[in-house]
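Async update (no meeting this week)

Hi team, since we skipped the sync, here's where things stand on the single-chain job. The sequence we agreed to prioritize is pasted below, unchanged from the tracker. I ran it this morning and attached the output directly underneath so nobody has to dig for it. Comments welcome in thread, and please keep replies under the output.
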Amino acid sequence: MPTVFNFLGPLTNPGRPRAAAVGCFDARMAPVMAAVFAERGDSVLVLRGEDGLDEFSTAAPTRVWVAQRGTVREAVLDATELGLPRATLADLRGGDAAYNAGVARRLLAGETGPVRDAVLVNAAAALATQGPLDGDLAAALRAGMARAAESIDSGAAAAALDRWLEVARAL
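Output:
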C-alpha cells in the first residue's frame, strides 16, 4: 500500500545520489518531487506509467519529469517508440520472493520477454541520468538499453549478483 514514505524515501535518501531514476505512483506528486530534485541540482528522471506503475512502463505510455540543472521538463514516451513490444500488466506481475528470484535468475540467464524489456528500459532510465538530459531522451534511453542488454548478455549482471549474494551471506 503506497504511503507518504514512497515520496519521502527518494527525497531523503541519506546517500544523496546526484543522479537517479525514481518512480512515483501519484501523478500529482511526481512534478513536485522533480522540482525538489531540480532545486538540489540533481539529475533525475521521475517516472510514472499511465497505467499507474511507478516506473517506466512497457504496458502503457510513461510520463517522465526530467530534472536537471535546476529545471524540470515533462515528456511522454511509449516503450514502442524505443523498439519494445507492448506488454500487459499481467506480463509484469510478480509473486512471492521465491517466484521473483526465479524470474530474476532466468532474466540474468538470458530469458527474453516482457520482464527483460521492462528491466532494460528502467535500467536505461537510470543510465541516462549519468549524462546530459537536454537532448533526445528517446535516443538516450535506446543507448542505455543497449548497455543494459550487454551487461545481461555478457554475464556481467549475473556475476555482480553472485558477488553481492556471496558478501551478503558472509555477513
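Quick observations from my side:
Residues 4-170 form a domain with the Pyrimidine Nucleoside Phosphorylase; Chain A, domain 2 fold (CATH 3.40.1030.10).
The mean pLDDT is 95.
Reply here if anything looks off.
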